Amino acid sequence: MSRANTTRRDFLKTSAALAAGSLPIWYTSTSAKAFSFKAANDRPVFGCIGTGSRWHGLGPHALDFGECAAVSDVDANHLAEGYKLMYEGQEKKGVNREVAKYEDYRELLDRKDIDAVIIATPDHWHSKIAIEAMLSGKDVYCEKPLTLTIEEGKQIIATLEKTGRVFQVGTQQRSEMEQRFLKAVWLARSGRLGKITKVSCAIGGAPTSSEIAVADVPEGLNWERWLGQAPLVDYRANDIKSDGGYPESRCHYEFRWWYEYSGGKMTDWGAHHVDIAQWAIGMENSGPLTIEGTATHPVPYENGYATDDTRYNTATEFNIVCQFPNDIELTIRHDTDNGILIEGTDGRVFVSRGALKGKPVEDLETNPIPEGALVELYKGREFGDHMRNYFESIHDREQPISDVYTHHRAITTCHLANIAIRLGRKLEWDAESQTITNDSEANEWQAREQRKGYEIVV
Question: Domains of the chain, with CATH numbers?
Fold first, then answer.
């Protein structure tokens, strides 16, 4: 595909990107809906940062739409696996491209031949890498939850607006699962349920652990760098398997159950379900009025901080109530079947990754969703998987279905829920100014101190 002259409409759409640097050489004004990703010149070149377990799902699929030039990870074992996955994957597709390996992701970002990055690191690294990637002229796909704090979301948005990059968040429920969630959102927003009164997000509880002793850092793991902005602490691990089948530790998959690196189930599954819930009630660009709830933590707490550093510390059980405008209540809970229950004055629907049910769903047999309505909700795009949506967005220079703005609002609700249960008090939130208005101490929890050398700079 040759480069095409841009029209004024194309220029207006891409001016922010041009301000940050020239567009990739394969850019054209041709509609992305006809974009085949087959010709070599049509395929963006991407780099992979974080090549652990999640990358095994993202990486091979990204090769359907682009070519991988480099991988990066602070664990040499993950790095070797990521390299093998990408090199052999491209070889099977007849792509003759060397794949470089870097422990330091900044070497990957320095490469001018890389157009985009896919980030699948632990949560506490997401924001810093994503911001630096945008500043280096790269488009970004980053797994959820995008941020460790509310402040990081504000920094990402500021950087996005400064650079004009394309940014997809890995909340795949917006694209996949046979569009069940998209249909549920449409039913709620179209009035088929009447006035929405309540949305319940059941996300499951988090695991507990045994007492995890200090252990030797595994060979090949740069533990100090893995910690990044988090406090410098001893590596801990044992041979007891968690519910997810991984050894109990402070590292790799089990990082989710430590507030130092993540937010527990609240920001893990909450990132998915609260996102859909706020979209369904028309609050995808706003937020709650109040947040309060109860929770059980697996270790003692004092002033919002765990006093035992030998065990997982995120909430294992919780019931959060968020009051939204228009007298809508949104709850986040650990119990009941995983999924979202949307209730209105004229009906209710339940949606999960495996089901969409309720009388309004049954009524679709005689009163179907109008043709084109779901496509319009999906930003006018053809349905496809989440990764394809990212690469199509890179091509047409428009924000993908899971944009930074709406994700920031949804994950802010999750962060506020964690602040409320850690401090044990009700919070009042001004969504316009993004401020906790009734509690100055709680408002300071929007950010956290970052370890020297790993600060986020916008």
Answer: 8-175 (3.40.50.720), 178-211+261-388+404-445 (3.30.360.10)
